[in-house]
Amino acid sequence: MGSLFSLVALSFMGAFFSAASIGLPDKTPLIHFSPKPAVVTVRKSKNSNQVERQSLRTLVETKCKSLFTEFRPLWWLYKFSGHLQTMYCVFGDFSKNDHMWYDRKMLRLIDGGTLGLDFAPIDTSALNDDAPIVVVKHGLTGGSYEPYVRAILHRACAPVEAGGLGYRAVVVNFRGCAGVPITSPQLYSAGHTDDLRQALLYISKLYPKAPLLGLGFSLGANVMTRYLAEEGEKSRLQSACALACLTRPLEPWDLEQNNIGLLSSFLGKHVYSKGMGGNLLNLLKRHLHALQADPEHRVAKAIPLTLELKNPTLEKFDDTFTRVAGGSAPIFPFATAHDYYRYSSSHYVVKDIKVPFLAINAADDPVVRNVPMDGGGNGLVVMELTNSGGHLGWFQAGAGFVDRWTTKPVLEWLELVGEYLVPEMGNPAPLFVDDNGYIKESGRLQLGCKEIEGGGIINGNGGEAGTLQGL
């Protein structure tokens, strides 16, 4: 990792050279629509009761015009753009940008696990109960504090009169991330969707009139994609946007091939894969007590071998621990990491998504190596590929600061699906509260959640010691 720090100085040069991306070649993104785009129902104008049917392609072309604009990276991040953009995402100083504070709600799950849901804005006195809610899943070991999350939510949650969307947002932090405790012998993974499913029970019960708009980053994007496909017409999310979905899709979003791609280069193996593996190992060490509470549990038995790992790649960590602890039985444990990757990949399920879905990737993403552009033949899926941008980077020159190109297109998408789209999916299963206070839904009595003490106002502008941001 030492070679990385020699690049940090280059990142700080941005303070002196954020003027423009002058003289760079044409960077118009490639956008794929299905040959038969879906036709959806939309309002003729905001807050209108009059509706009409329009092609999703027409809507995107007219309401999300920034998707069709050039991405012109900062010139000092242009050469070897994918690596430098990613390095800046990891090592850049974003402490002065997009400040966010959250109201954390702690949820106890039926299996004894705990989720931390971070709601914004803090002051909701001016918001109606039916204001759209952006439901966020962050990357591999991040949380609501991640700069790529704040870049969008800071604007989405700002009042309309201040140039924002006037929406609510809630970040569903993975177990053990962003200061959320682990209280059961289970971690999380790319293929475990029940935690998101249970969080959505709580959000839907709290705000039954609000449209829920999914937004996923990296690993969180894969979880959200799989959730949508598994739920189909019963999805509680009425739309979703996936950024830098953590896969290497020779076919759409194939985790196994993504891992092979990562290990095929020096930087992929020794920087990105080991960086992600190290993040997960440090997360495990922070939660040893809870994960070892039952010495006979399969997860506790996997810990000694995991702790012996030295600077592991992501695959090595997954093969030793995630395949065992990344979800609940009977799906977990898997025999090998590759079995886990094959199960968790979303390349074969994207065709089953029943709500409008936008995916944005960068062609030079060093973590997500090759990106498909067929959308699984699904008319509700829009795929976009920029020439450069790295992994969750897309840095361009802003008005006196470094900004992300993706922020504006994503906000336009959220405005389209939050203000104009009229949901047409089937009704999700009814909710009820059982005798123990757990929110449940008919047909899935093994799942449920209830709010517990331990939440409150939190500062969402820091990070976690021992964890690299931006991954």
From TrEMBL:
Domain of life: Eukaryota
Keyword Protease: no
AB hydrolase-1 domain segment(s): 132-370
Pfam families per record: Abhydrolase_1
Signal peptide (UniProt feature, chain positions): 1-19
GO MF, any single term: monoacylglycerol lipase activity
Keywords for this protein: Signal
InterPro entries referenced in this protein's UniProt entry, alphabetically: AB_hydrolase_1, AB_hydrolase_4_sf, AB_hydrolase_fold
Tagged with keyword Chaperone: no
GO biological process: medium-chain fatty acid biosynthetic process; medium-chain fatty acid catabolic process
Gene3D superfamilies cross-referenced by the UniProt entry: alpha/beta hydrolase
Entry's family note: Belongs to the AB hydrolase superfamily. AB hydrolase 4 family.
Protein name: AB-hydrolase YheT
